[in-house]
Amino acid sequence: MRAIAGACGLTDPAIYYHFASKRELQSALLVEPEYAHLARPPAAGGSQVREAVETLLSMFDQWNEQSQLMCMAFVECLEGDPQAISFSLQAMQTYEATIAQVLAPVCGSETREAVDAISRVLAGVLVDAALRYGSGLTERLETTQARSRRRNFIALALWKASGGAALAACEVDPCAHERPERPASLLAQRFGATGRPRATDSTWARILDAAIELFGRQGFEGTTVREIAAKCRISDAAVYHHFGSKRDLLHAAWEWPRSWTEEATLPPEGISDATLEALVDLVALGSARDDAFIRLLFRHAFSGDPAARDSRNQTGVLWMRFLAHQFERNVEPAVANMFADAIMMVGLGEQFHNRIEHGNAFPAYVLSPEARARMLRLVRAVAPYHLFVKDIVCER
Predict the structure, then answer these.
(1) Are 111 and 104 in contact (CB under 8 A)?
(2) In this predicted model, what pLDDT tens digit does every residue of 161-179 receive, in sequence order?
(3) For 44, left (φ over 0), alpha (ψ -120 to 50), or beta?
């Protein structure tokens, strides 16, 4: 509360005069999401698709102004706060309804499918920026390249519903999506060339897995070393023998390698519908299996933990490179980067929504046929690889 008082130029008592606690202040924020309502629908005529896209981009800019509040709400959703869950679901429903109002004149009977794809891919963009940049996300999302990237995502998501008009109207620029360089492994820097700290020590690994599960379910502050020891059926002293403190356990969690891409068995011919289906299954299985770790990572990365943020960003780079490699057998590298980026964002947006809506039931839901079929539809919507051939060259 002291930091809030300082930012307002007030004393601590002045803040407490209005709000008895930080929890009460948070509750006051999570009353009703404020979203700009559509001033007017896109005009009819040849520019209809382009105007719809520009309207959606402007809506995202206004959504970006609420990004810090949405991120705070998401952290509370991971804690199971019912007010935060209600607030977040209402915000997403309001946003989707406004997107539908924009798209109805353009998409007709295909509006619902287009709304799903656009709302999820743009939510993914916002969540990704929050995880990458923290409080600096607003400025990062205002750059020309960031706007071009969002325009591409919207055009891809609209290609089917607009009869292909969106791709032409928006002048899709694949060069807005850069493939990041492979990151220098923090694991190798800290633990040697193997990058796998004490992997042969089964007790070390058991303690870490137990800590991740309990941290993910109860939070770091809500978990004791004694609970971790009890779950492993060892003494507290045995935990401290391997890890000097509970904080060391948390840091080790970020450094413990978890790569689903190494487990992938994909069709050898390059990208195809079968490849997309295999990718969806890979992500579903990994998300369910590592649910506790992902919850823990999201909670700490959103809260500003630099080690958690770095761990997530390095994982994101590896996924981007893995996905782009699948596509570049069939399309130009710049287009492969664009599709990889779109799939990552729509997947992140869908996971964001599902974690809020399903809470602790997320692992079971994400493995359901319904969830997998829905995710496959979203991936196909934003990655129409069959429309592109190897003739797009990036000049940058």
Answers:
(1) yes
(2) 887 778 877 788 888 888 7
(3) beta
Rounded to whole angstroms, the Cα distance separating 363 from 355 reads 9
Unique residue bearing structure tokens 């051939």: 389
223-246, pLDDT tens digit by residue? 899 999 999 999 999 999 888 888
Q: Please state, as a whole number, how many other Cβ atoms lie within 10 Å of the Cβ of residue 80.
A: 11
* Polymer length of the chain: 396
Q: 341 vs 48, 98, 212, CA distance in Å?
A: 26, 25, 28
CA distance 135 to 120: 22
CB 121 within 8 A of CB 157: yes
* pTM of the predicted model as reported, rounded to 2 decimal places: 0.82
pLDDT digits (tens, 9 = 90+) for 11-37: 777 777 677 776 776 677 676 555 444
CA distance 273 to 353: 25
Query: What is the Cα–Cα distance from 339 to 290, expressed in whole angstroms?
Result: 25
Q: SS3 for the chain, per residue?
A: CHHHHHHHCCCHHHHHHHCCCHHHHHHHHCCCCCCCCCCCCCCCCCCHHHHHHHHHHHHHHHHHHCHHHHHHHHHHHHCCCHHHHHHHHHHHHHHHHHHHHHHHHHHHHHHHHHHHHHHHHHHHHHHHHHHHHHHHHHHHCCCHHHHHHHHHHHHHHHCCCCCCHHHHHCCCCHHHCCCCCCCCCHHHHHHCCCCCCCCCCHHHHHHHHHHHHHHHHHCCCCCCHHHHHHHHCCCHHHHHHHCCCHHHHHHHHHHCCCCCHHHCCCCCCCCCHHHHHHHHHHHHHHHHHCHHHHHHHHHHHHCCCHHHHHHHHHHHHHHHHHHHHHHCCCCCHHHHHHHHHHHHHHHHHHHHHHHHHHHHHHHHHHCCHHHHHHHHHHHHHHCCHHHCCCCCCCCC
Neighbours of 246 (CB within 10 A): 17
- Return d(Cα 152, Cα 118) in angstroms, integer: 11
Rounded CA gap, 73 and 79, in Å? 10
Residue with tokens 């779109």: 342
CA count, 13 A, side-chain hemisphere, 61:
13
Residue whose C-alpha is closest to residue 242's, from 217, 216, 210, 215 = 210
**59 closest CA partner among 81, 39, 79, 82:** 39
Please check whether residue 116 is in contact with residue 100, taking contact to mean a CB–CB distance below 8 angstroms: no
Cβ atoms 124, 347 nearer than 8 A: yes
